[in-house]
Design goal:
alpha/beta; 6-stranded mixed beta sheet; 32% helix; elongated; Ubiquitin-like (UB roll); 5 helices; 243 residues; 12 strands
């Protein structure tokens, strides 16, 4: 009996020693996993530093492994204008953060704030802040706005027009602060003190491509540019002073 008890105690001691050694190795490894490098990809609305502050919030987040495990299996943070965040463990001291932003094509003013919507007219975010890279849309008629629901407008075709316009604005890297629609869905752009009449067309490629060259020449002026009848190669565009 004593020999069996000695063998059992010996096995138990050996098992505990292995567990303690494994624990020491584990904690030593974790202690060496301090977060030194953070790579951010996919961000346009926020700077890298802004995103780091929003994602790395807890004391344990300064450990690369713990940060990875939290975003892999735990509860993620809710960041305005961000649909999802993935954290990839590059090495024991480096993580790569993949940001998947909500697709925003425009915003409207509502209740002293701004409601941002996607290409289908679905309101994806509300904020008191007006983002510089999202055109402000005016001329839409709606009775109510519900977050994560589609804007109730008279003509859903307007969302395709807005998508086409915003894609062209980004393509030609234009700074258009506001897009206005009248009751006939005729389009006007606003850039600083310049108002541009684009009219109603199936496509606006020619006009917006020309604006890439035209706006720098008109910078600092308070004028109205009438491009409703503009055609490619046209040399003269009517410009009148604005009061």
């Amino acid at each position: 009996m004593r020999e069996k008890r000695k063998k059992s105690n010996h096995k138990l001691i050996k098992f505990l020693a292995v567990c303690i050694a494994a624990s020491i190795m584990f904690f030593a490894f974790m202690a060496s996993c301090n977060l030194h490098n953070v790579i951010v990809e996919g961000n346009t609305h926020y700077s890298e530093e802004e995103l780091k502050k929003k994602i790395i919030m807890k004391a344990t987040d300064h450990n690369a492994v713990f940060l990875y495990l939290r975003y892999k299996y735990g509860e993620k943070v809710n960041i305005p204008f961000v649909d999802d965040v993935d954290v990839e463990l590059v090495d024991k001291n480096t993580v790569k953060i993949h940001v998947y932003e909500k697709v925003v094509t425009g915003c409207i003013e509502y209740m002293s704030g701004y409601m941002y919507f996607d290409k289908d007219g679905i309101v994806v975010e509300s904020s008191n802040e007006k983002l510089d890279n999202v055109p402000f849309i005016t001329g839409l008629n709606f009775d109510r706005i519900i977050l994560y629901s589609k804007l109730e407008v008279n003509n859903d075709a307007i969302f395709n027009i807005i998508l086409n316009l915003t894609q062209l604005i980004r393509k030609y890297e234009l700074n258009i602060e506001k897009i206005d629609f009248n009751s006939n869905l005729e389009v006007s752009f606003y850039h600083e003190d310049i108002k541009i009449l684009l009219g109603k067309r199936d496509t606006y490629d020619e006009q917006i491509a020309e604006l890439k060259n035209l706006l720098p020449k008109a910078k600092g002026q308070k004028i109205l540019l009438d491009m409703k009848n503009f055609t490619e190669g046209q040399e003269r565009i009517i410009a009148t002073p604005l009061n």
